[in-house]
Design a protein that fits this description.
mainly alpha, TPR-like_helical_dom_sf, 40% helix, Serine Threonine Protein Phosphatase 5, Tetratricopeptide repeat, 511 residues
Length: 511
Amino acid sequence: MKKIVSILSTIFLLSAILSSCTDLEENPYSSIPSNEFFNNEEEFLMSAGRIYAYLVRYTCYRCIWGTISVSTDEAVSPLREGNQWVDDGVWRDMHAHTWNSQMQDLQTIWEFLFGGISLCNQILYEFDQSSVDFEAKPSLVAEVLVMRAWFYLNAMDLFGNVPFTTDFSDTSLPRQVDRKFLFSFIEQQIKDNVGLLQDVPTASNYGRVTKAMAYTTLAKLYINAQEWIGEAKWDETIAACDQVIGFGQLEIEPDYFSNFKVDNTSSKENIFVILYDKVYTSQNWWHVFRFHQLTLNSLSQQTYGILDFCWNGFAATESFYNKYDPKDIRRRQWLAGPQYDMSGNPLLMQNGQQLDYTPHITSLFDFSNPAKSNEGVRSAKYEYANGLQGECMDNDYVVYRYADVLMMKGEALVRQGHADLAVPLFNEVRRRTGLEDYKAADLTLDEIYDERGREFAWEGLRRQDMIRFGKWSEARDLKPAVSPAYTKLYPIPANIRKTNTNLKQNDGYTD
């Protein structure tokens, strides 16, 4: 059983009564007046814990993780034989960059992000209304403020100019602000509050905001600044990364896969995770971590003893898989080739042939020539527990890793012309892969882009990387057309614009 502090186990219980991913207007706590609830430190912690319980929506395949991953080269969910994964063409549109403002999945992402912002505003309002005081209260408030900044960063990244409000009691329609305003707001919120936080993850603060998490978020803000506000901030990126490095308590795990084990709570590399527990977070369809269901052919259940049905959907694209050297240990995160059950017996498909995951995928969305059920290599990055029963995995989803901090600093140095200084940073991560160390001449931007793909596959980073490295619009194996530049932002959902007339649609889109 996972070693999670008792208060966070209570937070898991709170997640069971939170509303679904698409129903963010309801307030499940409105029946408990804040002046009756906040009587001591534990009750404040439980209230702040709502925001961490809320995060379980993130990995929903119809919310942020699935949608942004399938819009990159690292993931695809093709129409498969037997008319599997039709889903009104949403996976085709996401991969081909032909989405529109009517798509429910984009509205779901919007509602997740702004529901999170609203929840942070509510918690802060309730804290402010309470006269109860205790030593850790400023730190707890800082956690919520940094989480709100994190939500706004994601909203700015995906949708550009977005509505802005920090006052839970203000019932007027939020005004729309531009990226420069939000950039400054996020930067200042983190700087103003990071000093109140604990340094790094420990057994007592696991899954919560720390200084390391806040500075990593700041590094994310700075490394994407050229795209987001038109100003390069490489020095600031390096400084934010140095803050994380300077704690001296985080390290690269010798075993890459230990970061993604069923019980990955002991990783010294993971900086910020979303807590999942197969008992506490399996109460709602939208709240579960279900990579096993998304990617595995149902026959692969026999490989791991998985008892719940797998859906045979998400896979890596052929070109992405081919970026891995055969000697690269990280290549083992993909199931490829002939497949066997737990006893070593071949897994046989209905046609009598052995299940063989092939890198090549026939088509993206072609009813006359659909992808076959065995096409596309499948993810096994997160350990699948033997005998896994139910829809929710027990692993915690990794949002930030120390490897990313080192590689962001290294990238910033290379962009400044200091590849020699970046070499030890990249090699600190690379040495566990079984590959030769980098030399300064190896560290071109194209190589850094590919290395980040290999290191962080299916960790939700690829979209930002593709945009930052100028790869987003390019044609690729199952996306033959070059995308218009405006697709670097998603459209503001049409239904949202109907309810808030202050919002101007992003360029290139109509309602």
